[in-house]
């Protein structure tokens, strides 16, 4: 039985309207997600950088680097901040690939001499109420890295206390904090050997 022309046109119009509506919703959702992601990045950078002013907006200094020592074979963002054309800080994107439930992503703020300004977890899938205390919104555990450096802390110190190091673990969780300690230690070692690439002359 042939469909009447009017019915076919009506169905085609309805399908076109539905597709347009879905496309609009997708576009609006994507824009909201991107705005939220950008705001999250701005807050994360502010948490691991010294107070301004800066020569440029830190977000605008983003460049991608390939450095497997930072925990990923994929390019990772690097941010460099200057004040009056002098290096002020660098922010490394670091991945701890051996978290209890997978990758843990961090921002690590460093002074030019390699001292840690601050560290913040930006993404993780750790167990709620246990491993997720690495998140600064839940506890101040992550603040123990501030002021640390390879100069002030021997290699043996870069472990949780349960494993003979100098870092606090989390109650009931050792794997997650050790993964972060190890990732930050590796990042500091990478920075020590690549400072001139981070802050080109």
Outline the secondary-structure elements:
Blueprint: H1 5-48, E1 63-65, E2 76-83, E3 86-99, E4 102-110, E5 116-123, H2 175-198
Antiparallel strand pairs: 1-2, 2-3, 3-4, 4-5
If you had to describe this structure to a student in words, what would you say it looks like?
The mean pLDDT is 89. Strands 1-2-3-4-5 form a five-stranded antiparallel beta sheet. It is 34% helix and 21% strand. The protein has 201 residues and is of the alpha+beta class. The protein has two helices and five strands, in the order αβββββα. The termini are far apart.
Tags for this entry?
single chain, alpha+beta, about 20% strand
Brief characterization of the structure:
The chain has 201 residues and is of the alpha+beta class. Helices cover 34% and strands 21% of the residues. The chain has a five-stranded antiparallel sheet.
Largest sheet: 5 strands, antiparallel
User: How large is the count of helical segments?
Assistant: 2
Strand order of the largest sheet: 1-2-3-4-5
- Shape category: globular
- Backbone structural class: alpha+beta
Q: Give the C-alpha Rg.
A: 23 Å
Helix content: 25-40%
Series of H and E elements = HEEEEEH
* Average pLDDT metric: 89
- Low-pLDDT segments, ≥5 res: none
What fraction of the residues are assigned to beta strands by DSSP?
15-25%
Topology, number of strands: 5
């Amino acid at each position: 039985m042939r469909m009447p022309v009017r019915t076919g046109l009506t169905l085609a119009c309805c399908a076109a309207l539905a597709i347009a509506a879905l496309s609009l919703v997708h576009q609006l959702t994507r824009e909201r997600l991107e705005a939220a992601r950008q705001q999250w990045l701005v807050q994360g950078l502010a948490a691991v950088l010294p107070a301004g002013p800066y020569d440029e907006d830190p977000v605008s200094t983003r460049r991608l680097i390939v450095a497997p020592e930072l925990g990923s074979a994929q390019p990772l963002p690097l941010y460099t901040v200057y004040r009056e054309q002098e290096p002020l800080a660098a922010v490394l994107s670091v991945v701890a690939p051996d978290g209890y439930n997978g990758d843990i992503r961090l921002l690590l703020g460093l002074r030019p001499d390699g001292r840690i300004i601050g560290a913040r977890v930006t993404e993780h899938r750790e167990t709620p109420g246990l491993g997720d205390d690495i998140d600064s919104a839940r506890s101040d555990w992550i603040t123990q890295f501030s002021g640390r450096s390879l100069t002030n802390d021997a290699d043996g110190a870069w472990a949780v206390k349960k494993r003979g190091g100098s870092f606090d673990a989390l109650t009931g969780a050792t794997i997650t904090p050790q993964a972060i300690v190890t990732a930050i230690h590796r990042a500091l070692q990478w920075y020590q050997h690549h400072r001139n690439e981070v802050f080109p002359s």
